[in-house]
Amino acid sequence: MQKGDNNQQVLTSLNMTAWNDMQVKAHDTIQHQKETLLLAPTGSGKTLAYLVPILNILKETQIGVQALVLVPSRELALQIEDVWKKMSTGYKVNTVYGGHLLQTELQNLSEPPALLVGTPGRVADHLTRGSFSPNGIHTLVLDEFDKSLALGFEKEMSFILNELRQVNKRVLVSATAAVEIPEFTRVTKPVVLDFITGHTTEESLELKIVRSEDKDKLETLGQLICYLGAEPTIIFCNYREATERTSHALQELGIENAYFHGGLEQIEREQTLARFRNGSVQFLVATDLAARGLDIPQVRNIIHYHMPTTQEEFIHRNGRTARMNATGNAYIILHNDDTLPEYFIDIPEQVEIPTDSPLPAHTPWTTLYISGGKKDKLNKVDIVGFFCKIGGIEKSDIGLIDVKDYISYVAVKRDGVRILLQKIGHEKMKGQKYKIAIAR
User: Which domains occur in the chain, in start order?
Assistant: First the structure.
């Protein structure tokens, strides 16, 4: 298959009509240049910008790992894997990351994929174990490489790159313009594709300051959320403990929400993101782990409950909204004695919010967890048919369905979920009994 055929096939598989300008430029540059530095804002389609060139340079006759993508988080790894599978390339992909069974990864790597995606710590572990051979890897992508460095992965990344003897194509990807390229990457004269400098969301993003008389700002946060209403909103805190404390406090105020940070178990993180994506929860209290590298569409509001220490993280947080020509709002909550960080040049508008807005309406959706997925030969049609025929609900009572390898998440109308679970609780789907329960 020729390059053009690959590109058209991927567009068809993804139900897309054309690539954006950044992707067109990246496809050509990455395919034909040895070193590329791609700088593009969150939500611009960076993943496809490098996955399509990788597809075009994979060799059908070569056995083993040919391309390696290193990422700072398991969520980004899973997102890249999902995009690759949706591309319908015919080439195997695997992800490796901490927080789940190593044995599962070892089993997957016994038949090595053409594309391997993983976090630096786990990839280094597998290289040490000899789980896969690095000798056939000709293409390396460091996605969000500055974030990996900030998380302390320099030693692991340096070790990995020293093990890659045959790499002849290196791609560095970042959503931050002012990045320094580490020496261990051996990237010395990259072709720079800068789609950040000059990029602005001023027309689509409204930035506002809300003042609080209370030092802990919690009452003001609650008032702001009530004022905004039931719209997808991320509330950013600086520490894991603060996300949980803030989340619990909002629950006590009657505001349904979930919290998300790196200290949660993998299954907890996946379920939380699934619930936020499908509208089962409208308010997500999170650390900067949610600031980039996650597929979270249609976020309407960002609330900076705690201000980040750097301008880069502030930009990444705001990048979760006003994406792909959509509009959004970012609110900064400051105590009356607080000042803005030094990285602010223009002072945002200060707004007064009402103190008597009603609580946001509870979402009509809830999420069901199914202990089976693609590896069990389950698909969306199977799930809809089972819920409708056996559970007795209408298709309109079913929302977003997310089928992963070994688990699935289904949004269903909350008011009928108890009866649905009673009807399907002891039934088999495609001849197999699965655990089905409400995801928390």
Answer: 3-194 (3.40.50.300), 205-350 (3.40.50.300), 365-438 (3.30.70.330)
